[in-house]
Amino acid sequence: MSASQDLWFAIAKAQADHARCLDDDRLEQWPDFFTDDCLYRVTSADNMREGYEASLIFLNSKGMVRDRVSALRTANIYERQAYRHILGQPSILSVEGESATSETSFMVARIMRDGKTDLFATGRYLDTWRREGDGVTLTARIVVCDSSRIDTLLALPL
How far is CA 102 from CA 27, 29, 38, 112, in A? Predict the structure, then answer.
């Protein structure tokens, strides 16, 4: 297997593990997918296209990611819900030394407490990865939602 195939499999596995962590409501483990100096943003395709920094969620350190989880568990009030992620295959956009960037399409279904299920969000992940051993860790994830319309509080991470 080539180095590029190894990298692709490491990214695909990390993507799947990340989605499963969120879908299984293991939010306390979510920060483990990021480096200490990470970036996590949720924005719209329009904002991204125009180069606007405006974000629905903006976290620029692993500490802020942990704080987000803590707030979700203890401070924020929102209707109980769960997600189910459906991911496309990652496309590796660039590789430089121990860093790689990728783009992955996603769809997220939102399941409400009463069982109602809706297509909640579609878009793409623009990720920057750091190779660590046989795996990869996120240094940046920009979640670019196809629509700028979110029908409710965006509580859980996408």
Answer: 23, 22, 15, 31
